[in-house]
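Q&A FORM
Asked by: J.P.
Topic: structure of PspC domain-containing protein

PROVIDED:
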Amino acid sequence: MATTTLTRSRDNKVIAGVCAGLARRAGWEPRTMRWVFVLSCLLPGPQFLIYLVLWVIMPKEERRY
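REPLIED BY: S.T.
REPLY: Here is the structure written out as C-alpha coordinates.
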Protein backbone atom coordinates (compact mmCIF):
# COMPACT_ATOMS: atom_id res chain seq x y z
CA MET A 1 0.00 0.00 0.00
CA ALA A 2 1.45 3.37 -1.00
CA THR A 3 1.57 5.95 1.73
CA THR A 4 0.79 9.57 1.12
CA THR A 5 2.05 12.49 3.09
CA LEU A 6 -0.39 14.38 5.26
CA THR A 7 -1.10 17.62 3.40
CA ARG A 8 -4.07 19.93 3.05
CA SER A 9 -5.87 19.59 -0.26
CA ARG A 10 -5.73 22.55 -2.65
CA ASP A 11 -8.46 21.38 -5.00
CA ASN A 12 -10.93 19.45 -2.87
CA LYS A 13 -11.45 21.84 0.02
CA VAL A 14 -14.44 23.44 1.66
CA ILE A 15 -12.76 25.57 4.33
CA ALA A 16 -9.06 24.76 4.57
CA GLY A 17 -8.64 21.31 3.01
CA VAL A 18 -7.92 19.59 6.33
CA CYS A 19 -10.72 17.01 6.09
CA ALA A 20 -9.88 16.27 2.45
CA GLY A 21 -6.22 15.76 3.37
CA LEU A 22 -7.10 13.48 6.27
CA ALA A 23 -9.52 11.55 4.05
CA ARG A 24 -6.89 11.04 1.35
CA ARG A 25 -4.44 9.77 3.97
CA ALA A 26 -7.03 7.36 5.44
CA GLY A 27 -8.31 6.22 2.04
CA TRP A 28 -11.80 7.68 2.59
CA GLU A 29 -13.99 9.96 0.54
CA PRO A 30 -13.63 13.60 1.62
CA ARG A 31 -17.41 13.91 2.05
CA THR A 32 -17.36 11.03 4.56
CA MET A 33 -14.56 12.65 6.56
CA ARG A 34 -16.45 15.94 6.63
CA TRP A 35 -19.57 14.23 7.94
CA VAL A 36 -17.55 12.42 10.61
CA PHE A 37 -16.05 15.75 11.67
CA VAL A 38 -19.43 17.56 11.76
CA LEU A 39 -21.05 14.73 13.72
CA SER A 40 -18.10 14.62 16.13
CA CYS A 41 -18.61 18.32 16.84
CA LEU A 42 -21.95 17.40 18.41
CA LEU A 43 -20.03 15.50 21.10
CA PRO A 44 -18.09 17.26 23.85
CA GLY A 45 -14.40 17.60 23.13
CA PRO A 46 -11.73 19.69 21.45
CA GLN A 47 -12.59 18.76 17.83
CA PHE A 48 -12.74 22.35 16.60
CA LEU A 49 -9.44 23.23 18.26
CA ILE A 50 -7.80 20.14 16.73
CA TYR A 51 -9.08 21.25 13.32
CA LEU A 52 -7.56 24.71 13.82
CA VAL A 53 -4.22 23.24 14.92
CA LEU A 54 -4.15 20.93 11.88
CA TRP A 55 -4.98 23.90 9.66
CA VAL A 56 -1.89 25.68 10.98
CA ILE A 57 0.59 22.77 11.03
CA MET A 58 -0.43 20.78 7.91
CA PRO A 59 1.40 21.98 4.80
CA LYS A 60 -0.56 22.73 1.64
CA GLU A 61 -0.44 20.17 -1.12
CA GLU A 62 2.04 21.15 -3.82
CA ARG A 63 0.64 22.04 -7.20
CA ARG A 64 1.16 19.51 -9.97
CA TYR A 65 1.42 21.10 -13.38
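FOLLOW-UP: The CA atoms of residues 4 and 26 lie 9 Å apart.
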